[in-house]
Amino acid sequence: MTVSSDSTTSLLDENLDWPTNGEYEYAHLYSSRKEIVRFDDISAAGIATAAYDYLVIGAGPIGAALAYKLAADHPERKILVVEKNWNEPDRIVGELMQPSGCQALEKLGLKNVFSGIGAVPAHGYLISYKGKQLYVPNMERPAADGTRYKGVSFHHGRLVMNVRAACKAMANVTCLEASVTELLGRYESGELKEVRGVSIGPVRDSGDGPKVAEHAVYPSRLTFVCDGITSQFRKALNPAPVELISHFCGFVLEHEPIDTSEYFTGPTGATTHTARPTSSEVNPLPMPHNGHVFLDGVGPLLLYQMSERETRVLADIPGSNLPSEASGQLRQVLHDSLSRAVPKHDYPGLHRLLLTTLAQSRRIRCIGTKFIPATTNNIDGAIWIGDSLNVRHPLTGGGMTIGLWDVVHLTELLRTPAPLNQVKAQWYWQRRPRAIVVNTLSVALHALFAAETKELGLLREACFAYLARGSHYTMHPSGFLSGLFPNPLMLVYHFFSVALFAVKLRVLDRSTAYTGGSLPVRIFSAFYTLFVAACVILPFLWKELQP
């Protein structure tokens, strides 16, 4: 595999126990295709006639981790994993693992998957708003030694290939490169009631040529649908229409690695962090090894490192309609947004690098963001998991965390023989607290950070000021964001505390986001802002709470 091989990388992380370097036990299988059966070889490999216990559709980070854990827990059972393309994927999201996701990987026996891929630790978030900076660190560990939980950021494709390497190493896993074209089973009035197997066809349609015969495979126990955010089988479970919230537009900054970095840990919620890179003009990240969120653009601007030399830029453009790139409108919107979010007088090096890289980028990669709540699964014989089950806004980087904890809870339940309906019911309730918090927070924060109205702008200002108060005002939201504090009631408490703080700012005329008006007008607009806050969080929370 081709990754950064900077010999100083191991010296750049001040935490010597961070497993981003060194040997990975399955590294030799990273790009190996010897373990993969092509569709044309299905008959020769005996796949169509073999007796499989489990069938996994999709080998992204969730599907591959699930197959690996099932194989490890049940070495006597056979698993078939069907994936359209086993080569390294290339995506612009799914590049940040929250601390809770790292915990899930450790429980799955995959704690070393970050080794050898140039990944870097992520200690928290720097938030910039109207010339002010706020640092939100990750939560402290229970031990009273002052250390904090760590996330990690990386190239998405490299992580996926490392998880797939672990999957390929299992003797009871068969890796097939093909396409699942249909879920086979029992239908009533056109509605799928039971999945008994799948129909498998070639990756690409034969077009006008002779029709290629497909193969049916019937696992004896379960089919897992893990085909990700673009799942072709989600509608069998959840036919509700999906609307786009916004678009993330991405490109990559290239810079020098950090020479030295110093981390100072003060009182909880008041941590400061400075770094001295080789040159502020070349490596202008305000706080390397952290996420960066800038709030003064058209939508929130998110930056995080994928390696010591590369930083991902994700600029959010609110709304379902994306400006045209062909006409140059998209680049103009992005140029204006970046200039506002990262002003030259505050971040001269970063401002210059952002605009130069934008101008030199041949293509701006964009992805639509959406929210899809989980739905109770009443279909026998199959379980939807990961983004095929539910999707949240990628602003908070919580998608893989939820998916991996789905795998943890499900595989633990499958260790004990029990009726499938009982397993699904227990799993659904076990996964809900963390999923409710991470999913609801993602869309609520985006609404505040995008701030398309005066009321939302006031809430954004109040949120920034609330987080700056330190103590639990900072660390509980940090816990929600990282998935380490999955308490829905506390999420609601803090969200409406922010809303009440916004009411105070408006009534006392201390807001810079919503100014003017007599006292009666300010009181009315303040409580209307409270109503707007309720409209932001309660509909999404209600959808997540549906049985």
Describe the protein's architecture and organization.
The protein is α/β, with parallel strands linked by helices. Helices cover 35% and strands 21% of the residues. It has helices spanning 9-12, 42-45, 61-73, 99-107, 156-168, 234-237, 329-341, 348-360, 399-414, 420-450, 454-467, 471-482, 488-507, 519-545, and strands at residues 36-38, 54-57, 79-83, 96-97, 120-122, 124-129, 132-137, 151-153, 173-177, 179-188, 191-201, 215-217, 222-225, 244-254, 260-264, 272-276, 291-294, 301-305, 310-318, 365-370, 382-384. The strands form 5 sheets. The chain has a 7-stranded mixed beta sheet with strand order 7-6-17-18-19-14-20, with helices on both faces. Strands 1-9-3-2-13-21 form a 6-stranded parallel beta sheet, with helices on one face. Strand 17 (291-294) and strand 18 form a beta hairpin. The radius of gyration is 24 Å and the shape is globular.
